[in-house]
Amino acid sequence: MYLTIIVVACFISLLVIYLSILKSRYSYFQCRGIPGPSPTFFLGHFGIIWSTKSYSRQLQSWTKQFGSIYGIFEGTRPFYVVSDVDFLQNIFIHQFSSFNSHRISFLYKLSKSVHLIGADSARWHQQRHAINPAFSAAKLKLMDPLIDRCIESFIEKSSEINQESNEFDIYKLYQRLTMDVICHCAFGIDTDMQNDVDNEMMAKAAVIFKQDVERMSLTKLSYLMPWLTPILTRFLLFQTVLFHTLHRLAPTIFPDLTDKIPRFWLLARVQQVIDARNTESGADTAKRIDLLQLMLDAKTTSQHEETTREKGLTNDEIKANIFLFMVAGFDTTSTMLANCTYVLAIKPAIQEKLYEEIHSLEKDKFDYDTITKLEYMELFLREVLRMYPASTSVLTRVCNETTTVCGHLIEKGSVIQTDLFTIHYNPDLWGPDDPHEFVPERHLTKRHPMALLTFGAGPRICIGMRFAMMEIKMTLARLLHDYKILPGKHLEEGFQLRDGFVIQPDAVYIKLQKRN
Ligand code: HEM
């Protein structure tokens, strides 16, 4: 009897302590004089965020109410939502050492094969240092014939489909194009996604892109109760090892996870390509110019990778990063191409100006050197990047040591989330022309270094930015050289932007008219 009373009393006391800690966490912003909407107990503001259709619009609407720096809670974790560009410049650039990681699901960090987006501090630094040279201008120049081959196939397919229909969704063809480009340039494998529509790689990748890891229940649980993360991590690792062992012991009863889980399937394909490379002669590998080979060249030669490597990448890191390039480069780049095409279809005068510039080069092939001469194309793309940025949720930083930024004391563990749309549509940053109007020439004026954030900023800026811009410019130059883009009947209906990890339209319906 006494024992029961003691147990119940202990339980109630612990519950009261836990609840009062939760409550006191919610005074975090109030104590610092930072405004914000009122939190809901336990969920903070993430009940609203998880149920809203558009994360970006929700942030923007709170910004209108609470200003350029305000506070919300993810569970009890403080989340600063910021559209003050000077404050962000400190976070992303000047005080990078105190804010060097993304806020990202623990599911990306499960194994030792953490990739660039998931890596923190020293591990990120080592990887970035090793991978940066693979994206240099000199290396990209070598890759342009690979990209050109994929564009050729894209143009042929577009022309074929265009002849068969009154309008077609070019976004689908862009997705196949960017997947082809990634396969050629990252894996070094010859694919033909335009014609091989049932390609297994494309199908597996499509499943991966549909999964929004940030909205998975396990991710939400770990955000709400961060202390659960190590337990969840161990549980998932144990589960994977258990399934692999069971499959080895009784393959007929327990299926191979590699076939069941698309991510494992893709990683296994990367491993096969790496194995094939390891058996190639030195002369053959010397001829290869893809990202995989460049990373293999930067690989550590040590047997005891974790303890003795200094600058190289481990085998697992190479695999994880090749996988990441696929995920990070496919959807973003095809979406940017789709957004550009939408604008070209509704702005014929801008399209003609671009055509004139492309035509003046007197070329019908566009390589790295040629596209760098297209000045108006650069302005046009920047304006598309401003008005239709690809992702808000990736633009975060976690505070890894308590510090003061612009007079605000920010505690270790807090998250900084950029309110990208407010910045990109801010008339003080982008005037005097109305930011809701599409005006490429506004980029001739020097702007604040944090005014355009589609690729992020600071040391963690998108590593594939130059690669993506090269691919987009080469594709548009070739398309506009051969065709005039006309709006399809269902263009506006299809161009409904959905806000997931990438902000993307449903479809871009157009018609192509051959130029003489
Ligand atoms: C139009 C296309 C693209 C857009 C809009 C885009 C956007 C972004 C953004 C916003 C970030 C976060 C930057 C930050 O936190 O400051 C990022 C990071 C990254 N992107 Fe891209 N990206 C694109 C294409 C690519 C391509 C083609 C690749 C690779 C082939 C790539 C690989 C990466 C990687 C590896 C990171 C992580 C960098 C790090 O944390 O050090 N991206 N990207």
From TrEMBL:
Heme binds at C462. Its cofactor is heme. Gene3D superfamilies: Cytochrome P450. Keywords: Heme, Iron, Membrane, Metal-binding, Monooxygenase, Oxidoreductase, Transmembrane, Transmembrane helix. GO terms for molecular function: heme binding; iron ion binding; oxidoreductase activity, acting on paired donors, with incorporation or reduction of molecular oxygen; steroid hydroxylase activity. The chain crosses the membrane at residues 6-22, 224-246. The keyword Iron applies. It comes from the Eukaryota. InterPro entries: Cyt_P450, Cyt_P450_CS, Cyt_P450_E_grp-I, Cyt_P450_sf, Cytochrome_P450_3A. Belongs to the cytochrome P450 family. Cytochromes P450 are a group of heme-thiolate monooxygenases. They oxidize a variety of structurally unrelated compounds, including steroids, fatty acids, and xenobiotics. This is Cytochrome P450. The lineage of its organism: Eukaryota, Metazoa, Spiralia, Gnathifera, Rotifera.
